[in-house]
Amino acid sequence: MPEERKPQNFEAKLQQQDWRFSVSEESSVLEAALIAGIALPNSCRNGSCRTCMCSLVSGQVAYKIEWPGLSKEEKEEGMILPCVAIALTDLVLLVPHAYKKTEEN
Ligand code: FES
């Protein structure tokens, strides 16, 4: 009987805030942050509006869609779209406008 493969979990860290949350290959980086109570800027959540664009300081991601709305230059500069990005390793992100979700927001 084949062994069931467990999804890999990684840690994502917001560099400036020193906030950490768990990410896995089962959800986007944005979804994982929201589940952890950390709001990252977002709007379309499908990789087209670029509202969520942020800088990947270290780590690797893959995309759920074939053409995320990033130019070749932006990708080379380390920009990612967390709403459609899946973590392949631990991540360190630069997201200046992230905030912790509370009951009021
Ligand atoms: S929320 Fe629109 S591209 Fe990520």
Short description:
This protein has 105 residues and is mainly beta. It has helices at 29-35, 72-76, and strands spanning 9-14, 19-24, 38-39, 54-58, 61-63, 79-80, 85-87, 91-94, 99-100.
Widest beta sheet: strand line-up: 2-1-8-4-6
Note the overall shape: globular
Tell me the span between the first and last alpha carbons: 47 Å
CATH class: Alpha Beta
CATH superfamily: Beta-grasp domain
H/E series, N to C?
EEHEEEHEEEE
* Structural class category: mainly beta
The total strand number stands at 9
Helix content: 10-25%
Poorly predicted tracts of residues: none
Q: Helix count, per DSSP? A: 2
Plain-language structure description:
It is built from two helices and nine strands, in the order E-E-H-E-E-E-H-E-E-E-E. It is mostly beta strands and 105 residues long. It has one domain (9-96): Ubiquitin-like (UB roll) (Roll), CATH 3.10.20. It has a five-stranded mixed beta sheet. A two-stranded antiparallel ribbon has the order 3-9. The protein has a two-stranded antiparallel ribbon with strand order 5-7. A hairpin with a 4-residue loop joins strand 1 (9-14) and strand 2. The radius of gyration is 14 Å and the shape is globular. Bound molecules: FE2/S2 (inorganic) cluster (FES). The site of FE2/S2 (inorganic) cluster has 13 residues, from loops. FE2/S2 (inorganic) cluster binds next to loops.
